[in-house]
Amino acid sequence: MPLDVADLVDRARNGQPRAVARLISLVEDAHPALREVAAALTPHTGHARVIGLTGPPGVGKSTSTSVLVSALRAEGKRVGVLAIDPSSPFSGGALLGDRIRMTEHASDSGVFIRSMATRGHLGGLSWATPQAVRVLDAAGFDVVLIETVGVGQSEVDVVRLADTTVVLLAPGLGDGVQAAKAGVLEIADVFVVNKADREGVDTVVRDLKQLIAFARREIRGESWRQPVVRTVAARGEGVPELVKALSGHHDWLVAHGELARRRADRAASEVAAIALRELRARLTDPHRGGHLPSVAKKVADQALDPYAAADELLAALRDEA
Amino acid sequence: MPLDVADLVDRARNGQPRAVARLISLVEDAHPALREVAAALTPHTGHARVIGLTGPPGVGKSTSTSVLVSALRAEGKRVGVLAIDPSSPFSGGALLGDRIRMTEHASDSGVFIRSMATRGHLGGLSWATPQAVRVLDAAGFDVVLIETVGVGQSEVDVVRLADTTVVLLAPGLGDGVQAAKAGVLEIADVFVVNKADREGVDTVVRDLKQLIAFARREIRGESWRQPVVRTVAARGEGVPELVKALSGHHDWLVAHGELARRRADRAASEVAAIALRELRARLTDPHRGGHLPSVAKKVADQALDPYAAADELLAALRDEA
User: Fold this and answer.
1) CB contact under 8 A, B299 and A274
2) Torsion sign across C-alpha atoms A9, A14, A15, A17
3) Residues of chain B found within 8 Å of residue A150, distances taken between Cβ atoms
């Protein structure tokens, strides 16, 4: 049976979770119908607030996501969750355990949860995730949460595609703030210090605030002050404050024209990933005239250096265009 | 002072570690002289055996690398080590501790150790690592060890560029073999079960051998039987057996024409990464006529879907070629 894209998109927009799931599967499979799907979805996008959550292992990301979903549901919002799954072939069972906590939302039709398993995918997470966000946005979800489960740079890069990025820290996770500082300050719009009932929380919060104050002096023209919210996600403590901080950042984005800029950045990332995947296919697929295998053999035989080989490849691409 | 590439390459080939380090820095910085460097290096490559080591955190990769370096040195071989560093912004101090163990080789001029810190690099590890291997190969190292410290898929992909890939496991690391099986069987040429003095080692080895036997039935025409070597790297136990297994695999690669195929694959990966980085720059850099920002804005404004935008981008690339 041929795929009826218009019908599938209609059903997704009418809130049928199976249609939404099918559309995201098409993204994960890089299905040929994706062009048609994207064209059908695009007019219905631009409504959803996209929130990314990231942080080191053990910080309570899944629990935080789950209680955040509950809080947003209490406000009547429909919430889609994309859990960016571990990208390592060595990941273990604990992460699956985390997933199970989310089952409390399984019976709620206003919540859609999907793990993105894009390991080995050409173009990977940067290719699939923004297109999956587009599906959820068009399907009428008010908020899309992108949560990393893995800890690689690529997962973090994907979370950064959000309108608002939440970085979670917690007391007692190794070097804490110091270890994390290289990466997190430029990523975070909102900091959460979870497990705030644990010893050492005051130190983490103080260090973090010092770091924020110090970095502010470095960034000119930046008027958003990253808030630090204390939570005990497992007991729901601090969650109203987190929701308020998220709204505050959204309002700031709108007021400063930054929302449009971030969404243009996300669109740029999406378009570039699609274009580069196509170019990679043209370069490497011998069935499409890709010359990579033949020039690579010359490089391996030391008859050509890799830059000269890349030049040959690009020239061939141009000649065939 | 302009960079004297010929002199730098000469000094690297004469065993000067500072020249080798400088060449790898040029790779990490994507220095414009890299074309010239690659052309000067290529005639001197093809000698080094490239061995990748990967495995889950806590398995003892750094210790294993260090004792393997000692064993290869005892055979009179010069050894270069590329430690692929954590790609997560949330990585902590324990990994730095691991690095320090390698300092026992610091005074040995037959050993060169370099951490590859390519976070945020356009094209990332797949761009820099094969070029760094090329540097070490041309500089006359007999063996190049690529060790992952991070656990992301991209680090693992890089290790797979080796002639021989070693996957380390150990008893007591969560779900062990079962958790790892999805990824490791297709990666590994040689398995090491490290910490073999720990309880549970027999179970890990048995499970692993069952998995290998089972997978063998699935792969036709594959006559290499992945060995399972027990080691206690911290005490040097099992290291002679590991060295023997590595030599065995190398001999098998040569005998079956597989070494040439793997090296052509590595060259293909290197060339593709160079070409795609160039294409990415042409697409995205407005100073080079990249139209990405303007088409991305149309996508964000729902005036264009992302696939149509990618088509526009690719058409513009063709017109300007």
Assistant:
1) no
2) negative
3) 152
Residue A39, amino acid: A
Please judge whether B94 and A174 are an interchain contact, meaning their C-beta atoms are less than 8 angstroms apart: yes
For the beta sheet containing A49-54, the strands, ordered from the edge strand earlier in sequence to the opposite edge, are: A111-116, A79-84, A143-148, A49-54, A164-169, A190-193, A228-230
Confidence of residue A84 (pLDDT cuts 50, 70, 90): confident
Q: Rounded to an integer, what distance in angstroms lies between the CA atom of residue B287 and that of residue B309?
A: 19
Select the more confidently predicted residue: B184 or B222.
B184
- Give chain B positions within 8 Å (CB) of A94: 174
The angle formed by the CA atoms of residues B163, B25 and B78, to the nearest 5 degrees, is: 45
Q: What's at B207, amino acid-wise?
A: D
SS3 of B50, please? strand
- Euclidean distance between CA atoms B239 and B248, whole angstroms: 14
Give me the phi and psi of A229, to 5 degrees please. -105, 130
Q: Which of B46, B4, B48, B44 has the alpha carbon at shortest distance from B23?
A: B4
- Alpha-carbon distance of B159 to B82, in angstroms, equals 10
Residue A110's SS3 state is coil
Instruction: Give the distance from residue A17's alpha carbon to the nearest chain B alpha carbon, in angstroms.
Output: 23
Nearest CB partner across the interface for B276, out of A153, A182, A280:
A280
Residue B218 three-state SS: coil
The complex's ipTM?
0.88
Q: Which residue in B59, B90, B127, B177 has the most chain A C-beta atoms within 10 A of its own C-beta, making it the best mutation to test that interface?
A: B90
Give, as one character, the DSSP assignment of residue B59.
S
What pLDDT, on a 0 to 100 scale, did the predictor assign at position A222? 57
CB contact under 8 A, A266 and B300: yes
How close is the nearest chain A Cα to the Cα of B278, in Å? 9
Q: How far apart are CA A164 and CA A185, in angstroms?
A: 13
Question: What residues in A contact B151, CB-CB < 8 Å?
Answer: 88, 90-91, 151-152
pLDDT in tens, B5-54: 999 999 999 989 999 999 999 998 889 999 999 999 999 999 999 999 98
> DSSP alpha helices (H): ranges in chain A?
5-13, 17-28, 34-41, 61-74, 94-101, 124-138, 153-159, 176-187, 201-216, 239-255, 258-284, 292-300, 306-320
Q: pLDDT by residue (tens digit) across B232-262?
A: 999 999 999 999 999 999 999 999 999 999 9
Please report the pLDDT score of residue A98 as a whole number: 47
Task: Among A89, A293, A321, select the one facing B182 at the smallest CB separation.
Answer: A89
pLDDT at A182 over 80: no
What is the per-residue pLDDT across B286-310, written as a single tens digit (0 to 9) for each? 777 678 989 999 999 999 999 999 9
């969560």: which residue's tokens? B174
* Closest residue in B to A262 (Cα–Cα): B300
- Please tell me the distance from the alpha carbon of residue A254 to that of residue A224, in angstroms, as a whole number: 12
Band the pLDDT of A67: cuts 50, 70, 90.
very high
> Among A88, A283, A297, whose Cβ lies nearest the Cβ of B156?
A88
Cα A68 from chain centroid (whole Å):
16
Q: Quickly list DSSP for A214-241.
A: HHHTTSTT------EEE-BGGGTBTHHH
Render pLDDT for A17-63 as a digit per residue (tens, 0 to 9). 999 999 999 998 889 999 999 999 999 999 999 999 988 878 899 89
